[in-house]
Amino acid sequence: MRLITVQRRFSALLICCMLAGLLTHAVYAEAGGELAGHSEGWPSHFHFYARNSSSMSREAVEQKPYDFSFVWMSDTQYYSESYPYIYKGIVNWIVSHRQDMKIKYVIHTGDIVDDAGKKKQWAEADKNMRVLEKSGIPYGILAGNHDVSQRKGDYRQYRRYFGERRFKKQPAFSGSYQNNRGHYDLISAGGVDFILVYMGWGIGEPEIVWMDDVIKRYPGRRAILNLHEYLQISGSRSPLADEVYERVVKPNKNVFAVLSGHYHAAKQLINAIDDNGDGVPDRKVYQILADYQNALKGGLGYIRLLQFSVKTNKIYVKTYSPYLDDYNFYDPVDHPGKDEFALDTDLTPMGKGS
């Protein structure tokens, strides 16, 4: 009974601190300061992780030259629900910095809204994503579990707001599966040709077959696979992700990255793949999870910047909040390489193939 009382008092104190805004960075997290859980509910065990404003990293730890960049956002659900000014700030920042940040494309890996039955949330997300459309910035998007009423898999509202019809006029949009449950975009930047493949919540046999088929049509394009759930908090793949890896990622030599959200964490898993069976790895596949929604105000506006350097065959990954004008959610001193790191990947032209 005494322990319960102490826990309740601590929880009350924690809530008061959050409401008062006394701490700049705060999340519920598992031991070790890691973001925890996923967007179906809070984890059963957590502790309070915080960074004072004095430790905020306004500048990136290291800034190398790059040729172009993609922006990646995920799990914007609480911005659509309660903090629309953060969502607005993100898309306006993208438009304002399109030239100086060399932004060519935007990725959204799902959970656009928190409650698929709330039209107000969809209207907010719709309004903000149209900012990119009106500015001519191509983007791809998919449905997370919250966008389809959790495990019900109800795509009606998602298709109403982000169905195939919305994207048909976008030059990058190249094909759809079941009215944008899945789709793919073709993008060329800095002399590199990409295919970005998206698949929403509820992946089964037909969805796996479709993704594999689409990627096989474009062997000359560097492929990025975008899903809502893939990498877990542990840094390992979910059972479903293992199947996607074996049947979509491994067989297609042009796949070099898989991006996902859903779980409240920042993780990487790198697999070296021997494509020709000679015992020597031919490529690395970078599987990356980035979801900051357990921070105050649904994520404090943190997004990922993927900065491509063609000459050096590197992708410099940054984590940045337009809302705070702050790089690195995790303190780079305590968590080096967690929010800012470089990926070695072959960016030489492959020939479009088709």
Automatic annotation (TrEMBL):
Keywords: Signal. The keyword Signal applies. Gene3D superfamilies: 3.60.21.10. It comes from the Bacteria. Residues 1-31 form the signal peptide. Residues 70-265 form the Calcineurin-like phosphoesterase domain. This is Metallophosphoesterase.
